[in-house]
Design brief:
globular; 33% helix; binds thiamine diphosphate; alpha/beta; 9 helices; 258 residues; eight-stranded mixed sheet; Rossmann fold; binds magnesium ion
C-alpha cells in the first residue's frame, strides 16, 4: 500500500511547501490512501483546485491530471470537465476561503444540482496563504490579521450549508483522526452525486500563533479534544457538548449510495 502511495506522489516537489505542523499534508496523505485502498487508478481521475495553500494539495503534489485554477473557480472548471467527459472521477481539493467565500456560489449551486463530484475542503478557518485574513469559517472571537481584536462575524457551518443546498453526501472529519478521515473520503469518492467533506486542518503559522497556541502539537491536541462524533453527541447531555465541533457523516453516510 505504501509503495502504491509513493508512486502516486510527484516526488520532484518534495520537500513540500507546507509549513511545519500544517494539517494539509496529513489530508494529502489521506486522500492518496483512500484512492489506493479503493484500488482506483489516478489516470481515471481529475483533481481540481483553486488558489491557496490547500490548492497545492493535488497540484503539484499528485502524479495525475490536475487543474490549478483561478481563486474560487475550482468547481466551475470541474463542472466543465465532468460535462465534457462524464467518465472522469472528478475531485476538487481546495481551501475554506476558496470554496466557501469567493467560491461560495459555485459550491451551493453544484450541491443544488447534485453534480457528480467530490469536494474536499481543507478547512483551516483562515486565509492561510495570503497572510492570515479572516475567513467565512473563522470561529467567533478568533484573532486574524484583519480581526486583531477577535472575529465578530459568525462563521458558516459548511456541512449545514451544503446539506441545505442539496449535497447528497456530507461529512466532517479532522486531520487528527486520519483513519476515520480516510474512511469518510473513500465513501465520498464512491458516492454518486455531490459529496462534500469538511476537513478540519490546523494552520499553526497564521491561526495558531495569533490565538495563543504555542506549538503545532497544542493545536492538534485542541482539535482532538474539541471534536465529538455525531454518534457520541446523541447520547451526551447538551451541556457537555456545548462549544464542541460535531464530526462524522451527516448525510448519505449510512448505507446510502456510498
Ligand atoms: C480574485 C482573487 N482574489 C484574491 C486572491 C488572493 N488570494 C489567494 S489565496 C486566498 C485565500 C486562500 O484561503 P483558503 O482558500 O482558505 O486557503 P488556505 O491558504 O487557507 O489553505 C486569497 C484571498 C486571488 N488570488 N485572486
Ligand atoms: Mg483556509
Amino acid at each position: 500500500m505504501n509503495e502504491k502511495i509513493y508512486q502516486m506522489i510527484n516526488q520532484q516537489v518534495f520537500p513540500s511547501a507546507f509549513c511545519p505542523g500544517c494539517g494539509h499534508g496529513i489530508l494529502m496523505n489521506a486522500i492518496l490512501r483512500a484512492i489506493a485502498e479503493l484500488e482506483m487508478e489516478m489516470k481515471d481521475m481529475l483533481f481540481v483546485s483553486g488558489i491557496g495553500c490547500a490548492a497545492w494539495i493535488p497540484s503539484p503534489h499528485f502524479k495525475a491530471d490536475t487543474l490549478h485554477t483561478l481563486h474560487g473557480r475550482a468547481i466551475a472548471y470541474a463542472t466543465g470537465a465532468k460535462l465534457y467527459n462524464p467518465k472522469l472521477k472528478v475531485m476538487i481539493v481546495s481551501g475554506d476561503g476558496d470554496l466557501s467565500a469567493i467560491g461560495g456560489n459555485h459550491l451551493i449551486h453544484a450541491a443544488r444540482r447534485n453534480m457528480d463530484m467530490t469536494v474536499v475542503c481543507a478547512n483551516n478557518g483562515i486565509y492561510g496563504m495570503t497572510g492570515g485574513q479572516v475567513a467565512s469559517t473563522t470561529p467567533l472571537g478568533s484573532r486574524t490579521s484583519t480581526t486583531p481584536k477577535g472575529n465578530q462575524e459568525p462563521p458558516f457551518d459548511l456541512c449545514k450549508l451544503v446539506e441545505a443546498a442539496g449535497g447528497t453526501f456530507v461529512a466532517r472529519q479532522p486531520v487528527v483522526t486520519p483513519i476515520p478521515l480516510t474512511r469518510t473520503l473513500k465513501k465520498a469518492i464512491v458516492h454518486k452525486g455531490f459529496s462534500f467533506v469538511d476537513v478540519l486542518s490546523p494552520c499553526p503559522t497564521q491561526f495558531g500563533r495569533r490565538n495563543a497556541f504555542r506549538t503545532p502539537y497544542d493545536m492538534l491536541t485542541y482539535l482532538k479534544n474539541t471534536c465529538v462524533s455525531v454518534e457520541k453527541a446523541k447520547s451526551t447531555a447538551p451541556d457537555e457538548i456545548k462549544g464542541k465541533i460535531l464530526v462524522g457523516e451527516f448525510v448519505g453516510g449510512k448505507g446510502g449510495e456510498a
